[in-house]
Amino acid sequence: MSWVTIIWSMTASACLTLAAIHLLVWCQRRAVWADLLFALAATGTAGLAFCELAMMRAETPGQFATALRWFHLPGWVIIVAVVAFVRLFLEAGRPWLAWSVCALRTVALFLNFTVGDNLNFRSVEGLRSIRLFGESVSIAEGVPNPCMLVAQFGMVLIVIFTVDAAITVWRRGNRRLALTVGGGIVFVALVGLSQGVLRFWGVVHAPITASLSFTVLVVAMGYELSRETLRAARLSEELRDSEARLTLAAEAAGFGVWMWTVDTNTVWGSERWLRLFGFAPDANVSFEQAIQRIHPDDRERVKSAIRLAMETRAGYGVDYRVVLPDRSVRWIAALGRLYAAAGGKPARMLGAAVDITERKQAEQDLLQQRNELAHLSRVTTVSALSGSLAHELNQPLGIILSNAQAAQELLQQDPPVLTDVREILADIVAADRRAAEIIQRLRALLKRDETSRQPLSLNEILDVVLRLVRVDLIDRGITSVCDLAPDLPPITGDRVQLQQLALNLILNAADAMAVNAPGTRRLHITTSRQPNAVRATVRDEGPGLPADSEVLFQPFFTTKPHGLGMGLAICRTIVAAHQGRLWAEPHPAQGAIFHFELPVAEEGAGRERGARDAREEAPAYGQ
Amino acid sequence: MHASKPMLAVLDDEPDMRKALRRLLTGRGFGVEEYARGSDLLGALDSRVPDCLLLDLHMEAVNGFDVLEGIRSRRIILPVIVITAHDEPGTAERVRALGASAYLRKPVEREVLLAALDAALAPAHAKH
Questions:
Q1: What pTM, to 2 d.p., does this model score?
Q2: Residues of A in contact with B14 (CB under 8 A)
Q3: Do residues A11 and A152 share a domain?
Q4: CB B27 to CB A409 under 8 A?
Q5: Does ipTM surpass 0.85 in this model?
Q6: Minimal C-alpha gap between A537 and chain B (Å)
Q7: Which residues in chain A are contacts of B17 at CB distance < 8 A?
Q8: A422 lies in a domain?
Q9: Which residue from A335, A445, A456, A578 has the least number of CB within 10 angstroms?
C-alpha cells in the first residue's frame, strides 16, 4: 500500500473514531450540543480526506471533477459545525458574523453544484501527474471558476469571526482555550485560504490536502471537549461527595436537607426534611406539594423569597410555618441557595431547614410578658396623671354645662332668643368632641393590645403626648419648649408603644426638675432628621445624670423614692423593638438629654420582613 | 339684688370657657369682662376693680394662686370665686387661706355659681 493511501485513510479513520466517541457522549447528554457539533466536524474532516484521496487517485478529468465537487459538501458541514461550536462551546463571537460565514458557504455550495464542473473549475480539461511522498498523484488543469472567490471571502470572514471570539475568550481569562480552539481555526482557515488562492491563480500546482490541517483543528477541539467532559464528571463526583457529607452533617445537627431540581420540578428531601414537612420517608415530592404544606399566610412570602433568589442568584433565608396533615403547625427556619447550569440558567436549589417551633414559642411568651409589663407600666403612668386628666375632662364638661344652661335660659324667655342658641350648640358640640377625643386617647393608651406596625409621624406622637401631660406640666410649673422639625419622614412602629416611650421620657424629665426653683423648670423637646433615621431629643434642666448613664436603663434602677425602676428599661426595649437606639448624655450647661432615633420607614416595607420583626420584637430586658 | 349692674371679671385661659360663663352671666344681668392671662387682670386692677372675680387656677405663667397672692399683697378689696377643673386635696384650703370667698369645681352648676355670686356680692362682704 502506498504512503498517500495510508496517511489519508488513517486521517479519515482517526476522525471517524473521534466522531463516533463524541456522538455516543452526545447521546448520553443531549443538552451538550458541543459534542454533536464536534462529531459533525470530525465526520466532515473524514469526508474531506476521502474526497482528496479520490482526487489524487483520479484517472480521468471527469472523476477528478466529481470528487472535487463532492469535496465541498463535507467542507460546508465542517465550517457550519465549527462556527456553531465557537458560539455554543466558547460562548463567543458575533452572531451576525457567524450567520454571514454560514450564508456565504451555503451560497458557495449552491454555486458548486450549479455553475461549471465545481466551485474550483469551470471545466476540468486535463490531469497532470506530480510526485507526493515518492509516488505520483493526479492534479487537475482547467479553467478556474470565479465563484471560488465567494468561498474565499467566506474564509476571510471566518478568520475575522474566530479572532474576535478568541479575543473575547482570552479577556475572560481562559487563555488556553482561546489559543487551542481559536488558534486552531485561524490556522486551518489561513492554510486553506492561502492554498486556495495560490492554486486559483495558478501559482502552485499541488494536490488539495485540506483534511490534514483540519485534522489538527479536530484534535484541538477534541482535546478541549474531553477536558471539559472530564472536568464535569469530576465536579459531579465531588458534588455527590460533598452532598453526602453535607447531608450527614446537617442530619447530625438536626437540619433537614432538600434539593429542588428546576427542570424536573422535583424536590428531593433528606429523611428529616420529609419528616419536618409531614411527608412519608420515601415520598416523591413535587415543588407544588412542598409549597402547599406551608401555612397560607406565609406561602406568598416564601414564594417571593425563592423568586428573588432565582432572579438575583443569591441565597435566601426565611422563617415560615408548615401545616402538617394532622393540622398541627410547626415553625421552620430555612436557608437556600441557587445553583445555575453551565449556560447560567437556574438548575437547582439546595437548602436546609430546621424546626424552630420551641424557639418561636419562647419568643411569643417573652413578647407577651413584655407587652404585659409595658401595659402595667402604662397603667401606672396614666394613674399618676389622673389628676391632670380629670382636669382635661372637666374643662370641656364645664364648657358644655354652662353653655347648655345659658341656652336653657334663652329658650325660657318669651319670646325665646334663638339667635345665640345656634352658636352655643356649636360650642357644646366642639367641647363634647374634645372630651371624647381625650377619652379615646386614654383608652388607646390603657388598652392591653397586640402590637401593630404602621407608618407613623414622630411629631404627631410627641404632640399627642404633650397634650395629655399639658396640665400636669403646668401644675409642676414646667414650661415646655418645642422645636419639631417640619417634613420629617414617617417611621414604622407601634403607636401606643411609642407614645409610652415619649410619655416616660417627658415625665422623667419633669420629675428631674422637681428640685429646681420655680421659673427654672424648662423642658426642651426637639425632633430632627438624621441619615436614614429621625431623632427626638428630650432635655431637662434638672441636676443631670449619674457618671455612667447606662445604669439608668437597667431594670429596677431608680432614683425616685416610689419608682419601680422599670420606666427607662421599658423605653430601651421599645426602642430596640423598633430597630432604633436610645441613649442619655449630660447637657454641657445643665440637666440631662435623652435621645432616641428610629429608622425611617422603608418604602414598601412590610410583609417580607414580617417574620424577622416578630423575632426581634422580644429582646430580653436590660439589654 | 344690686341697683346698678354688677361687673364681673372672668379670668380663664380657655376662650370657650370664658364665652360660656359670659353667656350665662350676662343673661342674669351681670356685666362681664374677660381676661386670658393673670398678668392682664392684675394690670387692669390698677385702674378699675370689678365687683367680683371668677378665677381659674391652672394657667401658664401667672396662675390662679399667683393672682390671689397679687390681690392680697396689693390689699385690693375684691371677692374671688375660684372655679377649677383640677380638684386636688388641699387646694380648697389653700385658696381659702389666700382669701378666696368660694371654691367651685368644674363643671359648675348654674345655681351653685349664682349662690356663690350672691354670697360674694352681699353687702356683708363689702368693706365700703
A1: 0.48
A2: 395, 399
A3: yes
A4: yes
A5: yes
A6: 23
A7: 395, 398-399, 402
A8: yes
A9: A335
